[in-house]
Amino acid sequence: MTEEELRNLYIYKLSKMVLESTKEKEVLTPGLIRQEVTKLLNNPMVDESERQYKKEVEKLLEDEYYFEIRKNSIDVDHGLSLKDPSEHNSWQLPNSWYYWDKHKEFVISEYKKKDPDNWEKIIKSMDVETNEILSSIENPVREEFDSHGLVIGYVQSGKTANFTALIAKAMDCGYQLVIVLAGMHNTLRVQTQARLDRELLGYDDLNTDKSNISSLIEKRRLPIRATTTQYTDSFDEKVADGEFHSQVTKLKDLIEVNDKYNKVTAVVKKNVKVLEKLNDWIDSCPEHIRKKIPLLVIDDEADQASVDANYYTNKRKSKSFKDNVTQTNKEITSLLEKFDRSAYIGYTATPFANCFIDPSYQNLYPKNLIHFLPKPESYFGAKEIFHNGKLKNAYVVTKDIESKAEFFNEIVKDRLPESLEKALYTFLISVAIRILRKESDEPMSMLVHITHEKTGMKEVFKATKDRMAALSRSLGKETTAAQNTKASMKSLWKSMKITGTLINKETNTGNRDFFTFAKVYKTISKEINSIELKQVHSDSEDDLDYGKNPSLRVIAIGGNKLSRGLTLDGLLTTFFLRSTNNADTLMQMGRFFGYRRDYNDLMRVYCTERISTEFEYLIALESDLRSEVSRYKDEGLTPLDFAPTVRAHSRMRPSGKMGNATRFRNNLGSTIIQTKYFKLKDKKFIEINNGIVKGLVNQLVTDNKGKPEKPLNKKCPGKVFYNVNVNTVISFLREYKLAINDFSADDVIRYIDKKGFKKINVGIADLMSSDNIEFGNAGSFALVKRSRKTTEYDDGFFNIGTLAEQRHLEMDIKNSEEGVKTRKIPLLVLYRIDSNSKATTGEGRLDLFKGINNKIDISCYGIVMPKSHDEDNDVWGQEF
User: Fold this and answer.
1) In Å, how far are 712, 766, 771, 778 from 708, measured between CA atoms?
2) Cα 554 to Cα 544: distance, rounded to the nearest angstrom
3) Where are the beta strands (DSSP E) in 620-770?
4) Which of 118, 200, 294, 394 could make a disulfide contact with 499, Cβ separation 3.0–4.6 Å?
């Protein structure tokens, strides 16, 4: 053995011994490493010749375990969880990991390259969030369990990275069979399989040159796969798709329930025939074996196909819910029912369908957990593009964009529409600038999304291909057409340089070179033939395989296959004319969301003004839903209590299959009117309103000749004054002082008068579990907790987001036998907010009186109106 080999052996041996001595310590620090190295080298059992390597051992360990040393000092935003502890047995996650440690080691090197400024926060956040999710489902050693959860992220924000880490930890804890439902299209399934293979499972079916985790995992611990990226048919030696098929080795032959190292995985497309084969495969495994298998199902794009889209029709027609579910939903629920130990975790960025499943129905409803992931560092989403006026004008091009009909009128005439031609030039300029910035090895993509119809896609593909061929022939020539093209490109380059400089300034990304137009034009002329055109639909064999070609330059023309789940690496230019009335569909079609820090100044979206406006509506939807979860968490409620409302749009709806969701009536019919804005810095203002509310309570006690009564609905906390004279409530509404941002009390009064209500019920909110405080002469009631948003509005008002709570809005009505609640007269609910209310870990929330002196409890109210059938709609929400 050479001296160098001997030295390395000593260092490796000593390092292993130090790690063994520190593995029980909760926090790994440089001081602890040095302490343990010194202690070890002072041991008389250690050879004298080994002590000379003290400094090298310390440095090796500090370098190798840099993240573990740093992670306890890294501050990251936490996600937001709504849980139900009633059926959950809390359990301790392990102190040591295998699959998670290997996966983390592999992806750290990746993130260091992708995002050197934020990689530590990314890994820390992934660690924290997956611990939260995993600890909220069941310990796989438990005899029987059936956990249902939902994890909500942002479009293109790293949901796959999160569930890959979750799977690693779940396998470490003892989950033995892991099934990933990876969207509806084979392209997404293959993309998911390839990523899991590379980052966790340790396989490379395609023999790519990309790095792979396999070198880190012992062969005996490689998980067994029931599906692959591709496989070779043994009969005709053709490479076929690696989807789940009927010839897969039987589960009973793959699984060994007594072998702790035995893990079986399958990545399966959400296709009815494939799911039927999967269930047949599971059925062939004897029941006594299945009873012992802890199953984890990850449902990627959980709002797509998984949710029972027949629920609302069945409810309306009084049909059996169980016997008339959609087929995909039936196969998924059947899969879960075959196991005594199962955890189902859905992942989505558009959760409206999942959140609007009727909680009492519970078919895949996330009864145990609803978890919002925090927005990752460097994420580039709807808010970043459409919310800031300056940036929106820089990123989004809406001027002179044809309608879909106008666009195809040009296509029919064998002309490329002018707006698409401009988008094409924008992409070519962006590619050239990235090449000049020494980024030629990176992928660069353009997305053209006009229609979901294959005929239309083929026509657009032909027109684009013809134009690219003509450009290739003419660039650099002295013809009139070539000079006109050059002038158009130069004009676009000037515009991109101005807007790109603005983007760099607004996003603090530094001053990046846009080079001279002469250099850009020369690079376009040289590189144009390196750009491929691909059709991405079921009639085309084209695919987007960035694994085979990591520096792919492509213009992808497609529809549904490009609108959900599939990642277009290096997406620079999007041409997007396809509109939809479904908000979740539109959000998923935003493939330009994601991580664009290296080239965000070059990213452009071409779309109509209508589509741009609708993306602004999506920002409001996201905010509404997160605010609702935050409020429910503040109140200590569970997912089964969750009944969110999200604002409606003149054309759009949150989902086409929203289960129990209803669009509530405008002009107050079936809607919740609630005070949300409070002048927190003006103690006198609050005191006046507190006196007005207390005065109403005392008047009702006097008029009623006694205290309020118990709710008719025994499940709802609080007390009720029944059949109060309408004039008493109207006087109160006129007297209470509202913020200008809030609703109009005059509108409420006019509506009550218009509908001819003579009596109104008045409730007082309670929590049943908190310390009670006297409320005038009505008795003792609990205060509610409400945090606030960060923005301060004109005249010093702050927004709490949501006040009224579903269970309080039902206190005066009984449930019918069918479970449908019927309201005949309005209900006014009086609330008192605790001045000491704290914010949850949700994004954009603060303690109620954060930074404000003279805290004081706040009295306020909400009203719910009976259903009306003769007015326009304005919000979507759970049916009362």
Assistant:
1) 12, 13, 19, 7
2) 8
3) 645-647, 661-665, 672-674, 677-678, 718-725, 759-765
4) 394
Q: Residue 702: which H helix or E strand, with range?
A: helix 683-704
**Cβ atoms < 10 Å from Cβ of 328:** 20
Q: pLDDT value at position 184? A: 82
β-partners of residue 298 are 180, 345
3-class secondary structure, 440:
coil
Q: Which numeric CATH code is attached to 77-87+97-372?
A: 3.40.50
Binning pLDDT at 50, 70 and 90, where does residue 880 land?
A: very low
How many angstroms separate the CA atoms of 109 and 122, rounded? 12
**Rounded average pLDDT over 479-504:** 94
Q: To the nearest whole number, what is the mean pLDDT of the chain?
A: 84
- H helices within 446-479, ranges in order? 454-474
Q: For residues 621 and 628, is the Cβ–Cβ distance under 8 A? A: no
Predicted local confidence at residue 529, as pLDDT: 95
- Whether the CB-CB separation of 137 and 147 falls below 8 Å is answered with yes
Q: Which residues are registered as beta bridge partners of 664?
A: 875
Q: What's at 24, amino acid-wise?
A: E
Q: What pTM, to 2 d.p., does this model score?
A: 0.68
How many C-beta neighbours within 10 Å does residue 711 have? 23
Tens-digit pLDDT profile for residues 721-764: 999 999 999 999 999 998 876 778 887 888 888 888 999 999 99
Q: Which amino acid is at 262?
A: N
Contact 52, 37 (CB under 8 A): no
User: Two tokens at 336?
Assistant: 């879960």
Whole-angstrom distance, CA of residue 544 vs CA of residue 536: 8
Q: Please state, in angstroms and as integers, the Cα–Cα distance from residue 244 to each residue in 225, 281, 543, following that order.
A: 10, 10, 20
| Stretch 19-38: mean pLDDT | 67
Rounded to 5°, the CA angle 455-456-462 comes to 90
Amino acid type, 282: I
* C-alpha angle 396-402-403 in degrees, rounded to nearest 5: 105
- Residue pLDDT, tens place only, 782-794: 999 999 888 787 6
Per-domain boundaries in the chain: 3-70, 77-87+97-372, 379-607, 661-878
Max CA-CA distance within the chain? 99
